[in-house]
Structures are given as structure tokens and as C-alpha cells.
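Hello K.,

You asked for the raw outputs rather than the summary table, so here they are, unedited. I folded two proteins back to back in the same session to keep the settings identical. This is the first:
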Amino acid sequence: MLSSSEIDEIVFQVLLSRMHGKKRYAQPVTANTMHRLLNQAQDILKKEPVMLELSADIAVVGDIHGNIDDLLRIFERLRYPPAMRYIFLGDYVDRGLYGTEVLMLLFALKVKYPENIFLLRGNHETENLSRYYGFYKEISGKYEEDVYMSIIDTFDYLPLCAIIGDRIFCVHGGISPLLKNVDDFAHMQKPHELSGCGIFTDMVWSDPGIDVAEYAPNERGCGYIYGPKALAKFLDDNGLDLLVRSHEMCSDGVAWPYADDEETVDRCLTVFSNSNYCYRGNSGAILHISSDLLVNVEVFPPLTEQDLKKRKVLLPYWLYDMIAKKEAEKKNAVKSTARSSKAKELVPLRVSENEGKYGNTVKDVPLRVAVPVNC
């Protein structure tokens, strides 16, 4: 079992790999440490049900797709756990270059603060997709096959959905004609590899569609297109007000799929947290659901190359003691002035204990929009 200091070291190594715009493709930690981290994460995730029931005052994060820099600025903006609670809606890997670092950081935080960060499963948390959409190639340049397979095993223990404050249903893709009663679903066992047809596949693959009344085949080849009537019935039958999902890129980071339908205009919200997805120039967004179920939307623009070169990674406050100890050890063991200067350069002096701005420029200040949810 990894000690608390070893978990902190994993987090630090991920942050260190992004300092001053440096791009490291090597292993942030050893394969042995990765296996131990994954085993510990599995032990925690095994105890979580297929459907989480969470209290409000929580941040909701959509697709990340290997964008470690967006993930870091989200944590820097809203603060790292345990200062803020998070639920992620899946799709941590593929498309981007740093799915390994994204998983490493999220699993380390899950082990360190299991009640402050929750990870749902997306359609890319499967062997079928991750082998062919970038993650397998990425991790093969850093680790052997056994680490990849251990990650695939860990995906099998991720929950599929969550209900926040008894009123907001969170899922990666959407609903299914097989998903009638959430209380019945809560007693189901988590699936292993998501393939073929069925309720679990539908929930990570389905999309909302305004031109469909209830359900229609999905052009993706998996899941369904669910219309306003289907969504309204599902929410009403289960005493829910809002469905929050991800799975689709949004130019502005968020979208209301049923904006043109009077009855369900504010009952489905898509959030996508990976900015500049596949170089499309889109904004990213995150949500914060307050204790009184007010949904705050924060939108942030893509990071430019200049932003990445100028930015300094902020450390969570709980890492500061470890960094101070490292600095003291380096000073005691310093062999030359040049080496001492280099060591100081690698360690930022800023600590992310309070909220800060995205990046370093005024344009990175997020837009806040308050959307009330009926109780």
C-alpha cells in the first residue's frame, strides 16, 4: 500500500512534468508505483455502487481526453480536493497526449481523498476504444503492456452515474429505454468491458436529439438518440429535475440540447471540459452545483502556446510541506551554485490554497452564469 507521502510524490511528479511549459513524455513514476496506485484505487472503487448518491456543493467536470493542462487549471481555479469536491463524467483518455498523467493524478487524488473526488465511466474507459483512439499508443511509449491492462481492469470498477442532491442526474452519455427506475438500477452490478447493446452501453453512448420524440438509433452505432419526451418521462418518473452529461464537444463549453423545446428547455445540460479539442478551438467549461442546487457555469478559452510557456503550475497547499522538506534537503546537499539555482527554478513558490485565475492573462478569467434548478 502506498503511504500518504508516496501519494503526494505522485501528484508532485505529475505537476512537475508540466512546470514552465515543459513537455515530458517519459514515466512520471515507475511501473511498480503505477501498479500499486492502481491496486489501491481499485480497492476504493470496488466499494462504490454503480450509482452514486452525492450531496450538492460539488464541481462537475466533463470530458478531459488527455488534456492535463486543462485539468490542472480546473483544480487551480476551484482548488484541489479536499477544499472542493468533484465529480468527473468520464472520457479521461484518448485524443489527447497526456491520458496517463490525467489518470495518474485523478487516481492519486481518489486514493488520498476518496470522499472528495468521484470518477464516472465514459465510453472511452474501455479496451475496445482506448486501444484504437490514442491511449494505448501513448501509454506504450511510457510503460509496458501490463500497466495498460491494469488500467483497463481499474476502469471496470468505475460507477456509471450519480444523483446530486436528490434532483440532478449525472451520466456520461444519457438515458436508455431500459433505464426505467433509478432505484432498481442502483442495485445492479458494475459491468466489465462495455460492448454490444444494453443499458450500460446506452448510458455511456447515447445523445440527446431535438428531432426525436422518444428514442431513435444513434449514428455512432451504439446507444440511442433520446428526445424531449423520453427525457421528461425519465426525470419525472424518478423525481429528478435535470440531466447533466458530457460526451459531445461544445463550442462554448456547455450546451442546452433542448433549447428549442419549451417543456425541456432547461432539463438537459451538456458540459465539455477539454478546450481546443482536436485543435477545433472550442472553449471548455465546468459546473459548480451549490448546496441550494444553483448551477454555476464557468467557461474558459483554450490555452495558447504562449500561455503554456508563461504559466506556472500552482501546488495544492497540502504539498507545500513536502516541497519545503525537499528544498531543505537540496540545500543541505548542494554541490554547486548552478545546481542549487536549477533546483529552485523547478519549485514554484505559489500555493493554490485560494481560488486563482485561469492561466496568467486577463482573457482567462471565466464567465460565470447562474442557472437555478427547481426543487
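The second followed immediately with the same parameters:
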Amino acid sequence: MAWKELIGKPAPSVTLPNYDGESYTIEPGKDGIPIALFFYPQSGSYGCTKEACQFRDALAEKEIYKDGRVLVIGISPDPVDKQKIFVERQKLTYPVLSDSDKEHKAQKAYGVGKGMMGLTDYARTTFIIDGKGVVRDALDATMNYGAHSKFVTKWLEKLQKENETGAATEPSSAAKEETQPPTA
């Protein structure tokens, strides 16, 4: 399954070890809070560090991220011990999970492919899951680590507006085009 097929559907629930080795279950829709779920190729690499720190900084500095308005979760194929070093070194304030088992169950559940023409286990992919647990949109941009937090910020603004008006927002035009069946 490709990640595009998840848009508009309930997000999968997955249990993975966090950076302390404890089981952490992603339960979309459980608390009514949107989830920004980002998959990244490698803890400690330049782009992944920048991306992870952009989310850390957004949680600290941007009003739309504060006060439990969003749950940010990072996932990579790195083992728990490497995740722990990464989280502590970068002072990350959100769950960072390890999908390092042979099955890569989170990667498969979310349809995340390999990145950089197969050179990395994960493509850099971010999912926006609304408070009801539905995948609203996703961004697959392995080389553009800076686009992911901006993508999440725009979607949080859209979801906030939806909550105020009651009107649903469509996925981004790129995702919408790719998920629409061809017309004759």
C-alpha cells in the first residue's frame, strides 16, 4: 500500500518502542487531538536533525503547536539506543519511536517507501491525522527536510479553522490529484 491510499481513511494504530525502550502506542483519534506523524531516514544525520529540531522549536515557540493542540511523533528505522542518544543530544520534547525490527511495521502500515532511490530505509514522509483519527494529508519530500514543519503548521491552521467553522478542508492539491481516480 502506498501512503497516498491512506488519505481520507482512518490512520493505523501501531505500537513501537520509544527512545527509552518502552512500548508506545500511536492511537489516532483517541484523545481528539491532531497528530503530526513524521517518518525520517536516520537519527543524527544532518537533514533529520534539522527536521526534528524544527518540530521541537515549533512546539516551544508557535502558538498553534502549544497547549496540547497537536501530538508530534517522530519515527525512524534506528535502534532504541541510537534514538535515545539523538533525543537527549537534541533535547527533543516529543515521542521518538524506533521501527527497527525486521518487519518495519509502522513503515508498512503507513505505506512509507524507501528514500533517495532506495538508498535509505525510509522516505522522509509526514502525515497529518485529524482529531478523529483520519489521515487528512501527507507530504513525501525526502530531500526537503524544511518543508515538513511548514506543511504541519499549514494543516494545523486549516484544522483549527475547521473546528471553528465546521467545514472540512480538502487535502493539498498535489495529494488530491494523486488520489483522485482518472476521469474519462
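Residues 173-184 have pLDDT under 50 and may be disordered.

Happy to rerun anything if the numbers look odd on your end.

Regards,
P.
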